Amino acid sequence: MPSIESEEVSIIDVLSGGPISTTVLRTFAVWCAERVKHLVEASPEYDLDPEAPARFTHALEVAAREARGCASPEELEAARRGAVDQRSAGGGWWPGHLADAGAFRSAAHMAARFACRGTCQKDAAIAAILSSQRTAWAVGYLAASTSGAHVMDQAVNVETAEHVRELRKRIG
Question: With CB atoms counted within 10 Å of each terminal CB, which end of the chain scores lower, N or C?
Answer without folding.
Answer: C
